[in-house]
Specification:
two-stranded antiparallel ribbon; globular; binds iron/sulfur cluster
């Protein structure tokens, strides 16, 4: 599961705040071949892993963040997905407090292809999914979600950049939720 914000806060606050996760199809067989080492390589000293300071995170496409998703969406996210032909109600659940949240089907996001282990709308996935595993906790602020096994591959720069994007996104989500509530 993933959300822009931790679950307890989503349920508790009026300004509910919801990644992506990035779930492109992993080519496991190729990966295994690429990982096989020659005897010479195996004899060399193991490389010391340097901390990731700048590059983008290393998503393994495990799909964990697409299980029981609580990802919140903006109107722009919804419009982009509607343009692909998906009826709004097939993928959006509107919460009591006016937030728009991705729907699940049998335990995973409606857009997650469990056989291929990939996101069906990867290029147009909601903004929060792109920002994930950086999320917002009311007590901690901007953090990397513990759920993601690769959270430590998010560089400091990437966390900072995504954190700023996330704060903007949350403002949009909050104001859109308020607007929905005022017209219903
Ligand atoms: S590695 Fe993290 S971001 Fe990638 S699919 Fe898994 S949980 Fe999601
Ligand atoms: S839209 Fe795609 S990346 Fe986001 S939760 Fe759904 S399947 Fe995962």
């Amino acid at each position: 599961m993933h959300s822009i914000q931790k679950r307890k806060h989503i349920q508790d606050t009026a300004q509910e705040r919801g990644v992506g996760g990035t779930v492109d199809s992993p080519n496991l067989s190729n990966k295994r071949i690429a990982n096989q080492k020659s005897p010479k390589q195996m004899a060399t000293k193991p490389k010391i892993e340097k901390p990731n300071l700048t590059r983008s995170m290393k998503c393994t496409h495990c799909g964990l963040c697409c299980e029981e998703t609580e990802m919140l969406m903006t109107n722009a996210d919804i419009t982009a997905l509607e343009k692909l032909g998906y009826p709004t109600r097939s993928f959006v659940h509107f919460g009591k407090k006016g937030t728009a949240q991705l729907r699940n089907n049998r335990g995973t996001c409606v857009f997650y292809n469990t056989e291929k282990r990939r996101c069906k709308v990867y290029r147009l996935r909601p903004r929060g999914c792109r920002i994930y595993p950086v999320i917002y906790g009311e007590e901690e602020g901007i953090v990397r979600d513990d759920l993601c096994p690769e959270k430590n591959t998010v560089s400091e720069k990437e966390e900072e950049r995504k954190g700023k994007q996330l704060l903007k996104l949350l403002k949009t989500i909050d104001s859109e939720a308020r607007r929905r509530m005022s017209i219903t």
